[in-house]
Design a protein that fits this description.
Elements (H helix, E strand, L loop, with lengths): L1 H31 L23 H7 L20 E10 L19 H6 L5 E4 L9 E4 L3 E11 L7 E5 L3 H7 L2 E7 L1
Parallel strand pairs: 1-5, 2-4
Antiparallel strand pairs: 1-6, 2-5, 3-4, 3-6
Keywords: Membrane, Transmembrane, Transmembrane helix
Protein name: 3D domain-containing protein
Length: about 180
Amino acid sequence: MLKIARKIAKNTLIFIDKILPIYLIMVVFSLSFPHLTFAQSLDPLALPQLPLDAGKDEFLKSYVSPVPRLPLDLTGQKREPRFELKIWVTAYNSHPSQTDSTPCLTASGLNVCQRATLGAADVMATNFRYLPFGTQVELPELYPGKIFIVEDRMNSRYWRVADIWMSDFEEAKNFGRKWTTVKIY
């Protein structure tokens, strides 16, 4: 047993004396010099804004969303909000770097690009409180009197965050991230 322990100790000393310094020099050398990357840079403004595949228009016209929605209240009566919370609000747009492979389609099946041509920009994406599609939301500190409708979902890692859809990339970028009150109807 003692011979085995001496042999292990001898091999460990050889490793520490001869091999470990070589490994340390390799690591220091590797970390001391910058590395080159050959990845293509992503300029979101240079990419095509709204790519359409062949046949996608026909699919969108016949698409019926299987997702349940709340009916819109078009009576114009002032209602009391069900909830009033403080959340983070950010902005996004229909750019492939910010969405999935169908940038114009929301999770509810709404085509926001077609709505943008009509001047409607009241779409919101949320994950908090499991708000169903069609829920009406107001941001009184940012947009008093304007009602946003929940039509999209965010990544599940975002909690207590709402995302407002904007048609312009620079406008969404300048909006930033704001802590504000939200009223849910």
